[in-house]
Design goal:
Rossmann fold; 42% helix
Length: 337
């Protein structure tokens, strides 16, 4: 790598997706810079040669400082599905933070800005498969603010800022902890399927996701485009849970209950906890996992970018389960016996 190579800025590098992206870029020989909050765990990034710039996404001056001299910006950072934060925090990060990135990119003449949206902007999809041109249908504050952030990015790109939008599916793999509770409940025999289990869910293994993001950042035809980045197919919740049980070598869960009591309990739980700033153990966005369909087409990414996801669900789940066991997050039943 030339000593004077322009850095690539990654926001959200202390998170799951952003962290994998920053490390892949560094491994590929790029000079990588990360905007990180001072309290975030970032030793692993520094050890990989990533330049750390302390700052806050919601502060324009911090973002402008991090973006200075950069050739590209991968904007991955977002506040995800926590229920303890007020709606204003989602607005500040997912909308205001995105505007800060776009303004910094414009000010410093960044050659390409790659904005991470979400398939959640389509909400509970009503057409299968859902495409990039399907109607928006955001159903919660996370999805609404991510759509607002994407709209800001699309407007900036139409006005001349070089950029790309990608919408990732449900990302998983080694390093992810969002699905740990699901894997744990299957492993200990406490998983309950609420409803039929035939709700569609679309996942993408982290290595495939990073491949797709890099194509958005490097392919000449990507500029000005919007791309769904997902796995090769969607599955039912029943199939996904069965694959988890198989990977952990435990019996497939069989307990089922109606969905509606779960949502009622979720609404009540969030209503009690949120005013006190307490993260509720159950909230509607978590309950909707069992209800809202997610099934998407990746034909545009395949056709335009040459995107080709390589990790099938069974292999991705096996690798994820193995990582949970290796890290001590899950104790195999046979080992515990």
């Amino acid at each position: 790598m030339p000593a004077d190579a322009a850095p690539i800025l990654v926001t959200g590098a202390t998170g799951f997706c952003g962290g994998h992206l920053a490390l892949r870029l560094a491994k590929n020989g790029h000079r990588v810079r990360a905007l990180v909050r001072p309290t975030a765990k970032s030793d692993h990034l520094e050890a990989a040669g990533v330049e750390l710039v302390p700052g806050d996404l919601t502060k324009r001056a911090d973002v402008e400082q991090a973006a200075a001299g950069c050739d590209k910006i991968y904007h991955i950072a977002a506040v995800y599905r926590t229920a303890s934060h007020p709606d204003s925090y989602y607005e500040d990060v997912n909308v205001g933070g995105t505007v800060n990135v776009l303004e910094a990119a414009k000010k410093h003449g960044v050659a390409r800005t790659i904005h991470c949206s979400t398939i959640g902007v389509h909400g509970d999809v009503q057409e299968f498969p859902c495409t990039e041109d399907s109607p928006f249908n955001p159903g919660d504050i996370y999805q609404r603010t991510k759509l607002a952030g994407e709209n800001a990015a699309q407007a900036a790109f139409k006005a001349g800022l070089p950029g790309v939008v990608f919408r990732p599916a449900g990302m998983y793999g080694p390093g992810d902890l969002r699905f740990l509770k699901l894997f744990k409940s299957v492993n200990n025999g406490r998983f309950i399927m609420f409803g039929s289990g035939e709700t569609f869910y679309h996942l993408v293994y982290i290595d495939d996701l990073i491949d797709g993001i890099l194509l958005c950042g490097e392919h000449p035809a990507a500029l000005g485009g919007t791309f769904i980045i997902a796995g090769d197919r969607w599955v039912s919740l029943n199939e996904w849970v069965a694959e988890i049980a198989k990977a952990l070598d435990v019996p497939k869960p069989r307990l089922r209950l109606p969905y509606w009591p779960l949502e009622a309990a979720a609404v009540a739980c969030e209503g009690i906890c949120k005013p006190f700033g307490i993260e509720p153990p159950l909230h509607p966005r978590r309950a909707h996992f069992f209800k809202k369909h997610r099934a998407f087409s990746i034909e545009r990414a395949k056709r335009v970018l040459g995107y080709d996801p390589k990790i099938p669900l069974a292999e991705g789940v096996r690798r994820t389960a193995a990582w949970y066991v290796e890290q001590g997050h899950i104790t195999p039943k046979k080992s515990a016996a």
